[in-house]
Amino acid sequence: MNNTHAHVGLATDGDADRIGAVDANGNFIDPHHIMALSLQYLFEKRGWRGAVVKTVSTTLMLNRLAKKYNLPLYETSVGFDGIADLMMTRDVLIGGEESGGISIKGHIPEGDGVLMGLLLLEVMAHAHAPLHELIMNLQQEVGPTYYKRDDIKLDKPVPKSEMVERLANSAPNTINNEHVVSIQTTDGIKFIMADDSWLLIRPSGTEPVLRVYVESEDEAAVKNILAVGRDMAGKSTTVT
Predict the structure, then answer these.
(1) Which of 72, 81, 113, 191 is deepest in the core (most CB within 10 A)?
(2) CA dist., res. 161 & res. 85, Å (int)
(3) What sign does the CA torsion over 32, 35, 37, 43 have?
(4) Where are the alpha helices (H) located in 170-218, listed in sequence order?
(5) Which domains does the chain have, with CATH numbers?
(6) pLDDT tens-digit map of 203-217
């Protein structure tokens, strides 16, 4: 990016239903931030209203923005099907998932990487600000947030219900010295801690892989919680 003096780089996957970006400094901007920036812009600048729909593996920045704007928020299982169902039956402002599938009100109930790339350019143009500055401001408002996902290869697929039951039966009271305040089983098992950190463990629906997701306000905590998640995952199934 520095060599080309570009302000932003945008990319989609092969069928263009997912979006990713890099800023002018070459830093990767993940779909969590793209979706949060889009929600912030659509609400504050365009004046749009409606529900926020996100998968269980998507950032809490969206929860915080929805609470700030007094918007309904729904969490679905991973994959766009659950988001699409709500977009077709309810007044949804924005819906998306951590893998980059995002769509907005008035558009098709399916991820559209091209549309979201254009919207991100509009956000930057309206603000007259570089992407890294917008991200910094977003983090100051609804962060800080750090996120990581780890994929663990398995000998064979693991039944989700059995894995969830084993982990629920052996659920710890604390993770990384933070009290576990709730456990969700919308898709896999998600542990939410008192400091808003969370750990999600779920089998992939398409391959013999166990996915471990973590988000926290502290970067070091992400590494620690991820290690806990990997250990819990290893005890719940056979890991290669």
Answers:
(1) 191
(2) 23
(3) negative
(4) none
(5) 8-142 (3.40.120.10), 146-236 (3.30.310.50)
(6) 987 788 999 999 999
